[in-house]
């Protein structure tokens, strides 16, 4: 009885400490638990893979900031590596809000060293920021060069070879929005419903649950949910023999699994303690 | 054969229908799969040069030229390459223009009229007779009286914590109506009430609401403006401030009403740790799980608006809740009829009669 | 161990530790990091907005542009400036003009597309059709989804008391809602743990070089 009472009164700082230790130990001493892929991730991977040789581009949108970087930046890197390896042209768009452009730059910095043969302007273009949110999505349906004028580096878009082939959604095979907020919905509403461009989504685990209805109706081609989704995509590109760099998401999966086991344990223990002490008081 | 094919071929160019302009469609009529390549060239009628625009699709035999200027006339030349020969066809002049109405979105217009009609109709009814429109009582409303009563018995203050949205948000307006009800009760019981605010305009509205409630109960002298507290416009600064106040003042009841973000669980946990009875209400779906875990009563999403309509009977909000109720009823009936229709169509289709199935598919495509 | 020599990595690592020190208790290091974060966040956003929006979209076209149409930009600038009328007690009613335009145009743009994307597609996805029953699991899930959608809509139907058949259906609805909230809670816990893992990877790999 005293034990269960003590459990209910435990100082939360002990729990913080244990969670911290449970995270650190698997990172230092990795086990390498298998990462099994799920249908939403495979669906997105296969769709991107099939774009190889079609001449259609992938538009990767980094609609996230540093607060959600641990989950979404590995997704951006994995998708970029996939496209670069398969010679699928990429429009890297720094996001619907100005604070997100830095994330796109970081993703490029992490992936480009493994692909020295890529040519800027022909294999990929980095679009900067333009204000307007939904108006930008609508504008790109007409003309990307009309909406942006220049790329992130100040080059006029209509001088770049890739933009001459792909200037609106007609030649974009898929828009993949990586976001921790509600922007995937915005892309579906203004991109898919209006212009028919297919949308894929990479999202934080916080938002993943709310996007399953759109996945079920086919409005999203596929979905990467949280760090696990990023790890699954990393495993798929690793299996395809594509240079993966440091597998940040996969490395985190051991720690993720152990923390979840610990949390399940203390939730069950806490509930048992609550029920027992409640029963004894009655 | 080739001569017959050539004679049957024609090309037409027309303004792409149902768009915002800037687009011309070129279609080759009479092809039957022998085409090797089809090139589309355009002349803007300012000189004699034709520029290459793109390739004819080998499945639809169409090309859509998205780079046309509205109102400007163009000539098109189409070069069709077959195995043995190449054929050049001309068409035009044609110009692009924007359409005022897109008939492919007629379904949206119809549903918009139906839903808007419900809302406007009920707002009118609510204006004439607000008490005549029935809204069921939300269970958490009884808890408001219980919570304030408990606070009074324990000799502790009551806290009302606004969310992080502004005065234009429906959730904030609903929260103000609930604040009115809470203020009436605390004024009656002479319990101290502390209202924390994130937005300065919401603070001004809260102050007026509480003052009015005290005046209605005849205890305006007990109203203390200093208890309507503006903390900060910074999310976690506000959270830290509210937490600090809760720990110092030790409330008996805490109301968390409005739109919350990541700070929701921090606030609810602190309220739980001081032993207060907590009633939360928010339209932020991502924060509801945290309130449900940490609070005693929760107004889930639209229940906040319904509760405020139940209390305040304000015509616009009441009419909107009723109108959206009928909208939901319409959707439920629509789904039910859709399922029955699809089932009957499938059964008949299996038996060889595909009329209903074709009708169903056409309707779903129109939707 | 391969400790980083990059000053920015050290600054990021120390600020991370300052923020995490709050888990023990509030302290001056945490307060310093929090205030620094808030200040830099505001400054960064302001600068980005100025150089990415105001300068290229307003200043440059007006001052350096050549098209006579550019003077039309003055109209939205003046309408936007009316937002500052909130500070005047006498003229604060003027703020209704830009708000009305913003909400009106925004609603006109968003509502039809929201209907299509968020309501019609979901309704179409809920209606049970033969193609959903090609596999047992998809068919079973579709029935569960159908029941859940109807029951949840009944729960949020406020024009009838929850008694009898309506009450029982609403009970099924709240059951579905709670399962959904549980899943959402679990996902959120996973997300928070992922953020912790990301920061730990930064400290152990980028800063201390303990892990590869």
UniProtKB/TrEMBL annotation, chain A:
Source superkingdom: Bacteria
Keyword list, A-Z: Membrane, Transmembrane, Transmembrane helix
Transmembrane annotation, as ranges: 14-36, 124-144, 257-276
Protein's name in the database: Uncharacterized protein
Source organism per UniProt: candidate division WOR-3 bacterium
From TrEMBL, chain B:
InterPro entries in the cross-refs: DUF6754
Pfam families: DUF6754 (PF20539)
Keyword Membrane attributed: yes
Transmembrane intervals: 108-126, 329-350
Span of domain DUF6754: 97-347
Keywords attached to this entry: Membrane, Transmembrane, Transmembrane helix
Protein name per its UniProtKB record: DUF6754 domain-containing protein
Protein source organism: candidate division WOR-3 bacterium
Lineage: Bacteria, Bacteria division WOR-3
Automatic annotation (TrEMBL), chain C:
Domain of life: Bacteria
Alphabetized UniProt keyword annotations: Membrane, Transmembrane, Transmembrane helix
UniProt keyword Transmembrane helix, yes or no: yes
Membrane keyword on record: yes
Descriptive protein name: Uncharacterized protein
TM helices/strands, residue ranges: 7-24, 36-59, 71-87, 93-115, 136-158, 170-190
């Amino acid at each position: 009885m005293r034990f269960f009472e003590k459990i209910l009164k435990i100082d939360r700082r002990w729990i913080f400490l244990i969670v911290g230790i449970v995270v650190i130990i698997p990172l230092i001493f990795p086990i390498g638990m298998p990462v099994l892929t799920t249908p939403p991730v495979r669906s997105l991977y296969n769709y991107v893979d099939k774009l190889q040789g079609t001449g259609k581009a992938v538009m990767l949108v980094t609609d996230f900031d540093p607060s959600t970087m641990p989950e979404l930046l590995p997704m951006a890197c994995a998708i970029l590596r996939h496209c670069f390896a398969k010679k699928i042209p990429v429009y890297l768009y720094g996001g619907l809000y100005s604070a997100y452009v830095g994330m796109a730059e970081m993703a490029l910095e992490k992936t480009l060293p493994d692909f020295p043969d890529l040519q800027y302007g022909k294999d990929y273009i980095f679009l900067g920021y333009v204000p307007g949110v939904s108006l930008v999505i609508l504008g790109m349906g007409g003309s990307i060069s009309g909406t942006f004028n220049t790329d992130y580096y100040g080059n006029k878009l209509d001088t770049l070879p890739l933009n001459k082939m792909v200037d609106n959604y007609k030649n974009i095979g898929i828009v993949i929005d990586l976001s921790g907020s509600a922007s995937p919905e915005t892309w579906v509403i203004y991109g898919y419903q209006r212009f028919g461009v297919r949308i894929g989504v990479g999202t934080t685990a916080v938002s993943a649950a709310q996007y399953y209805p759109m996945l079920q109706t086919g409005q999203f081609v596929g979905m990467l949910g949280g760090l696990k989704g990023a790890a699954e995509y990393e495993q798929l590109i690793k299996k395809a023999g594509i240079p993966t760099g440091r597998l940040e998401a996969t490395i985190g999966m051991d720690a993720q699994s152990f923390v979840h086991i610990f949390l399940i344990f203390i939730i069950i223990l806490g509930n048992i303690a609550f029920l027992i002490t409640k029963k004894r008081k009655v | 054969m080739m001569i017959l094919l050539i004679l049957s071929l024609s090309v037409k160019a027309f303004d792409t229908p149902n768009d915002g302009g800037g687009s011309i469609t070129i279609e080759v009529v009479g092809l039957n799969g022998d085409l090797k390549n089809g090139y589309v060239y355009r002349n803007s009628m300012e000189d004699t040069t034709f520029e290459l625009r793109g390739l004819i699709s080998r499945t639809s035999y169409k090309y859509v030229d998205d780079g046309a200027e509205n109102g400007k006339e163009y000539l098109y030349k189409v070069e069709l390459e077959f195995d043995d020969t190449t054929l050049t066809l001309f068409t035009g002049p044609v110009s692009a223009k924007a359409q005022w109405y897109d008939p492919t979105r007629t379904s949206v217009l119809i549903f918009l009229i139906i839903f808007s009609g419900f809302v406007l109709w009920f707002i009118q009814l609510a204006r004439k007779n607000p008490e005549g429109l029935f809204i069921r009582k939300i269970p958490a409303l009884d808890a408001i009286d219980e919570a304030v009563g408990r606070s009074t018995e324990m000799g502790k203050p009551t806290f009302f914590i606004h969310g992080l949205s502004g005065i234009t948000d429906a959730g904030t307006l609903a929260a103000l109506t609930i604040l009115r009800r809470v203020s009436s009760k605390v004024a009656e019981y002479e319990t101290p009430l502390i209202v924390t605010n994130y937005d300065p305009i919401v603070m001004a509205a809260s102050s007026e609401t509480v003052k009015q409630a005290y005046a209605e109960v005849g205890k305006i002298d007990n109203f203390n403006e200093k208890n309507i507290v503006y903390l900060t416009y910074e999310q976690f600064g506000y959270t830290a401030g509210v937490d600090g106040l809760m720990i110092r003042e030790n409330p008996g009841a805490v109301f968390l009403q409005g739109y919350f973000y990541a700070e929701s669980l921090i606030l609810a946990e602190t309220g739980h740790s001081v032993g207060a009875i907590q009633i939360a209400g928010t339209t932020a779906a991502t924060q509801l799980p945290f309130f449900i875990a940490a609070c005693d009563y929760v107004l889930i999403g639209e229940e906040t608006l319904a509760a405020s309509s139940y209390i305040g009977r304000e015509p616009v909000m009441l009419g909107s809740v009723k109108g959206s109720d009928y909208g939901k009823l319409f959707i439920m009936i629509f789904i039910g009829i859709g399922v029955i229709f699809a089932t009957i169509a499938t059964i008949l289709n299996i038996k060889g009669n595909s009329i209903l199935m074709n009708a169903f598919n056409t309707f779903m495509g129109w939707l | 161990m391969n400790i980083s020599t990059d000053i920015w990595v050290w600054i990021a690592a120390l600020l991370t530790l300052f923020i995490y020190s709050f888990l023990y208790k509030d302290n001056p290091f945490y307060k310093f990091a929090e205030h620094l974060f808030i200040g830099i966040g505001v400054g960064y956003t302001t600068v980005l907005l100025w150089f990415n929006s105001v300068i290229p979209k307003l200043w440059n076209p007006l001052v350096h542009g050549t098209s006579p149409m550019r003077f039309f930009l003055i109209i939205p600038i003046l309408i936007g400036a009316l937002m500052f009328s909130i500070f005047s007690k006498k003229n604060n009613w003027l703020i209704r003009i830009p708000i009305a335009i913003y909400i009106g145009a925004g609603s006109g743009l968003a509502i039809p597309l929201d209907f299509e994307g968020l309501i019609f597609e979901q309704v179409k996805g809920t209606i049970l059709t033969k193609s959903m029953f090609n596999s047992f699991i998809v068919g079973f899930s579709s029935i569960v989804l159908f029941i859940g959608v109807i029951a949840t809509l009944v729960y949020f139907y406020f024009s009838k008391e929850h008694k009898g058949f309506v009450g029982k259906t609403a009970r099924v609805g709240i059951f579905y809602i709670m399962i959904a909230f549980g899943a959402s809670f679990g996902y959120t816990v996973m997300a928070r743990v992922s953020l912790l893992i990301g920061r730990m990877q930064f400290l152990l790999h980028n800063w201390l070089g303990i892990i590869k």
